[in-house]
Amino acid sequence: MGPFMRSSTGRWVSGADFFDREAELDVLESRVRGRNHVLLTGQRRMGKTSILRELGRRLEGDGWVFLFVDVEGADGPEDAIADIAQATHPYRPISSRFATGMRRWLSDKVEEVGASQFRLKVRAGLNAGSWRRYGKRLLSDCAKQERPVLLVIDEVPIFLKRMLERDGSATRVDEFLSWLRATILALGENSPVLILSGSIGLDPLVRRLRIPDRINHLDPFRLGPWDRETSVACFERLAESHELRVEVGVAGAVHDALGLGIPQHVQSFFARLREHATMQGRHRVTVADVAEVYRNGLLGPSGQSDLVHYETRLREAFDDAGHSLAMEIVAEAAVEGVFTPVAERSLAALYGGLMEDVAVRIADVLEVLVHDGYLEAGEDGFRFQSRLLKDWWTARFRDHHVALEERLESSGADGNAR
Q1: What are phi and psi of 33, to 5 degrees?
Q2: Which of 46, 174, 200, 303 could cross-link to 317 by cystine, CB 3.0-4.6 Å?
Q3: Which residues contact 114 (CB under 8 A, 6 or more apart)?
Q4: Using an 8 Å Cβ cutoff, are 150 and 94 in contact?
Q5: What is the pLDDT of residue 418?
Q6: What is the maximum alpha-carbon separation in the chain?
C-alpha cells in the first residue's frame, strides 16, 4: 500500500497528498535553482498553488526562504508591497532589517507584533509617493541575507485587472510591472527568484494593454492536465488510502466522464462517489455509480460550488463588454458543440452596433478563453476541453440559447455572417 493520500476538494496539497507532478516539479525546481524568474500559467483547478507550495516546502528543506504572497485582495501597489512584507515577517533577518528602514511606522520590535499587525503598520507607511522606494528596499533586504529566496506572487492578473478597472487606464498597471521588472533585474544574481502566477492569464492582459515587454524577464511555464493514466492512478491511490472498494473500470470511467484530467475534478469526483457509497450503506463503488454521481452530484445542485467559480473568473477576466462576448461564446460552444467561424461572424454582426472594434474584441476574448483553458481551437472552431465544463454550461443555457447564426437571421441585421 502506498502512502496515505487525503481526499481534498478545495485546498492546496503537499507532501503525501501531492500526486504525480514530479516531472513538472523537477523542471520548475531546476529553473528556480538556475535563478530564472518564472511565469506559471495553467487553467483553473490544475494545481498551480499546490505545485508552488510543494516546491517551496522542498526548497525550504534545502535552506531556502520561501515567501508565498496572494495579492488577489490587493487594491494597489501599496497593498501588494504590504502583503510581501507580511510574508517576510517570520524571517527575522529580512523583516527586522526592513523595519529599521521604516522605524517611523514600525517602532516596535518585529518579534513583538504579529504578522497581520506588521502588515498594517507597513501599509500605513506606504502611499503613491513611497511604495516604489520601500518596495525596492524590501526586495533588496531579501537579497542581502545569506539564504536564497523564492518569492511567489499569486493571483497577479486579478490584482492588476482590479487596478485597471478602478483607474480606467493602464497607468498604474504599467507602473507596477515596470517597477517590479526593473527592481528584480537591478538586484542581479542576488535577487529573490520571482514566480508570478494566477488563475486568469497575465500574458493576454499585458498584450491587450500593449505592454508585453513588462514581463519579458519571466520564463513561461504552463501546467497542463493529467493524462488518463495519471488520473486513473490518482483515483486508485485515493480509493486504496480510504479503503474504498471499486469495481474494475471505475477509475477509467471517472476520467472518461470528466473528459480532461483536471486534478481537483478527479478529487471532487472521488469524494462524491465515496459519499454516495456511504449514503447507500456500502463500501464499494460500481461503474454504474459513476454515471449517476456525475449527473446528480457533479452537475447537480451539490456540485455548483465546484463549478460556479469558472463563471466568476470570467467576470474577473473581462470588462462588461468582454464578459458579455465571453458568455455568448461559451454558451454557443456548449449548446451547439462548437463555436464556428460562422458563429463568430454572426456574433460580430449582432454586437457591431454596441461596441467598437467588435471583431478585435471577440478575437481577444477567444485568446483568453483558450489561454485559461475553457476552449481549445480546432479545424472547425472552438470547443470545450473539459466534458464536465461543457455539460455544466449546456445545462445552464440549453433551454434558452438560440444559435448565433439563427439569431442574426431573425434580427434581419446585415452582418454578412455567411
Answers
A1: -65, -25
A2: 200
A3: 89
A4: no
A5: 39
A6: 72
The SS3 assignment for 384 reads strand
Do 227 and 233 form a contact (C-beta atoms < 8 A)? no
Rounded to whole angstroms, the Cα distance separating 232 from 230 reads 5
Torsion of CA 207, 213, 215, 221, to 10 degrees: 70
Q: Which of 200, 199, 194 is nearest to 214 (CA)?
A: 194
Helix (H) or strand (E) holding 332: helix 320-335
Neighbouring residues of 27: CB distance < 8 A, sequence distance ≥ 6: 221
Question: Please, which residues bridge with residue 194 across strands?
Answer: 151
Residue type, 286: T
Helix (H, G, I), strand (E, B) or coil at 127: coil
294, 297, 303, 306 alpha-carbon torsion, rounded to 10°: -50
| DSSP character at residue 286 | -
Sorting pLDDT into bands at 50, 70 and 90, what band is 173?
Answer: very high
Q: How far apart are CA 256 and CA 234, in angstroms?
A: 14
Give the integer Cα–Cα distance in Å for 201 and 220: 12
Strand, coil or helix: 35? coil
User: Over the stretch 60-108, which tens digit does the pLDDT of each residue have?
Assistant: 999 999 999 999 999 999 999 999 999 999 999 999 999 888 877 776 6
Q: 214 near 229, Cβ under 8 Å? A: no
Q: State the DSSP code for 213.
A: G
C-alpha torsion angle, residues 78, 83, 86, 88 (rounded to 10): -100
CB 162 within 8 A of CB 75: yes
The Cα 339–Cα 328 span in angstroms is 10
Can you tell me the distance from the alpha carbon of 58 to that of 52, in angstroms, rounded to the nearest whole number?
A: 10
Q: Among 150, 145, 199, 210, which Cα is nearest to 177's? A: 210
pLDDT in tens, 315-332: 877 888 999 999 999 999
* Whole-angstrom distance, CA of residue 56 vs CA of residue 5: 20
Q: Which three cell numbers stand for residue 397?
A: 443555457
Closest-CA residue to 362 (of 391, 404, 399) = 404
DSSP H/E element including 239: helix 228-241
248 CB burial (10 A radius; 0-12, 13-18, 19+) = exposed
pLDDT number for residue 46: 76
Grid coordinates standing for 387? 466534458
